[in-house]
Design a protein that fits this description.
Number of helices: 4
CATH architecture: Sandwich
Largest sheet: 6 strands, antiparallel
Order of helices and strands: EEEEEHEEEEHEEHEH
Helix content: 10-25%
CATH topology: Jelly Rolls
Number of domains: 1
Low-confidence stretches: 157-165
Radius of gyration: 22 Å
Amino acid sequence: MGRLPDTYRDPNTNQDLPILVRQPYMITGELDVSAGVKDSFPQAQFITDEATAKPLEIHRMIVRLTAFDNGTFANTVLGIGIVSQLYEPQPDVSGMIELKIIDLSRDETVTKNESLVLGLQTANCQTWEWEEPFTVDDLSGFLIDVIPATSFTINAGSATVPSPDEIGVILTIRVEITFEGYLLDLQQPTSPTDQTAK
């Protein structure tokens, strides 16, 4: 990433306002999805609120996926009647979840189409690093659709003693998304009257 910009273009006045301070900030949300059932985060989930009311300069998006099984191993082998439990060991399910991200401040999609999490993430990590900061206006943010695969199927192993991941079935995948960046404190815009007075 290159040198960060010193100014922010105010969409209301079209003035380039000096950035005085960058305050670390993050927006997070989570959603449990089932195979073949498209869902969306609540529209207000990734919108900066009136308490902040500042532009948000985003540097990265972090996606964490956690699989939960239907308790097959616990019910049939252990007999303890668990309905849903953490899938162990955790499989890589980044090829089972697609995301469609819409920037509400510009009414444009950030991803051209639905994109697999596998393709968005930087190799060997859970982040999508943006080469240049992406700034959304105050009181705006993102709408995110989650499109799961039609089936959450994991290839079974060949151990003599069945393990939970061999006979368990993924019931849901928890999608956790975090946007990390900075809130921008800006120098207040000058009015035409102030400029005339000078």
